[in-house]
Amino acid sequence: MLIVLLALVIVVLLGAAGFALHVLWWIAIAALVLWLLGFLLRVGETAARPRRRWYYW
């Protein structure tokens, strides 16, 4: 009985980790898209001021 419970706990933990990793992949893709948009789209373009990115780091 202990082996069955241990196997069930391992399956639940691995399932939760797989779901979390899947969600983290989507968050990483969204962050990459936002970074690329910030790199390509620049804010504050005027003749007096140089081109700046929308983030400051």
Describe this structure in words.
The chain is 68% helix and 0% strand. The protein has 57 residues and is mainly α. The protein has one domain. It is rod-shaped and about 60 Å long. The mean pLDDT is 78.
Question: What's the layout of helices and strands?
Answer:
Layout: H1 2-40
- So how many helices? 1
The helicity comes to 55-70%
Query: Distance N terminus to C terminus?
Result: 56 Å
Give the integer mean of the pLDDT values: 78
Q: Sheet with the most strands?
A: none
Per DSSP E runs of 2 or more residues, the count of β-strands stands at: 0
Gyration radius (Cα, Å) is 22 Å
In the predicted model, the low-confidence regions spanning at least 5 consecutive residues are: none
Residue share in β-strands: under 5%
Number of structurally distinct domains: 1
- SSE topology string: H
Q: What is the 3D form? A: rod-shaped
Counting helices, strands and paired strands, the structural category is mainly alpha
